[in-house]
Amino acid sequence: MIHSIQGLWVAGCGLATVNWRPWTADWSALPFHFWSACFFALGCIVGSFLNVCIYRLPLGLSVVTPPSHCPRCKYSIPWYLNIPLVTWLALRGRCKNCGASISPRYFGVELLTGLAFLACWLKFGNRDFPISSFPLPLVYAVFISGLICATFIDFEHFIIPDEITLGGIFAGLIASLFLPQLQNTHSNLLGLWRSFLGVIIGAGMVYAILRMGKMLFGRHRLKLPSESRIIFSEASLHLPGREISYDELFYRKSDVITLRAQTVELVDRCYKNVVVRLSPAALDISGEKLDPAAVACMECVTAEIVLPREAMGLGDVKFMGAIGAFIGWPGTIFSLAISSFIGAAVGIALILLRRREWSSRMPYGPYIAMAAVIWTFSHKTFFAWLMH
Question: How many domains does the structure of the chain reveal?
Fold first, then answer.
């Protein structure tokens, strides 16, 4: 018994001399794929935040307040019901409080972002010195997170918010200054310069295409059945069998809807055989200027109407500038070229499947984002192939 007590005492004294400071442990000794799991988990958490941004940014809402809640019943979601991937599966895609359906997009964005973070780590992480290689895959992961957010917003709303585009330009310039490896150099100033060139060349090319497209394809002449009746309401244009929001028609103040009408009917007056020109700022009926905001409804009879049309929007210009800030001017040229092929292939496929018409509007940001991701993960392979 005495010997047992003495043995326990000696063992206790030995344990007391051990330095129990886990936070000072050698984290680099952990296996590479331990950090792979960490990157995937972090990506899923970021994906949960991206869902908030995708829903709130187009509506002009704060992404910070109020906390996550059900859009239908306003139930404030507690932390234990806000676990990425797990909660959606556990609740089978429904609100815990009211049972309203939760879009599968929420699960998809979390999973996609988690896989993006994991891919960045596997591609750019250093297996021999994992701790020292954290910054580069993290920056690329943040970059791709922005692309994911912009893609889903553009698909749904046909816009890319300034928080993503202008914020992305600023973030790319700062990241290239402090992490010049992003621009394939070890010089901080050279990294900043290449990032700046990426912004200028990327945004400049898309803006040039936008202006050229406006000159060549900026008007869409739409033939209608004889004596078709069209209505200009407060929010949209009503054509035979089709309604178009003014937001889809007017990209800038200079855009104009033009038609020669057999008759024009307003609430308090009528016109015959007149030319009608409607812009966001003015309504011109054969030289008579009216305020569009004061005209609640206008009905016209015509056989033809000319609608404004854009090749791209200014959001795409700023979006390409943000992409150029991260991947430099060679990446922007590659992204613009490849995105045109991707967009054309998708557009033709949708037309063949009768999911869209030739003249219907199509978001272009998602295809730029897809091409930028291809460049991010394969540009060295691409250059090697090009050299051979």
Answer: 1
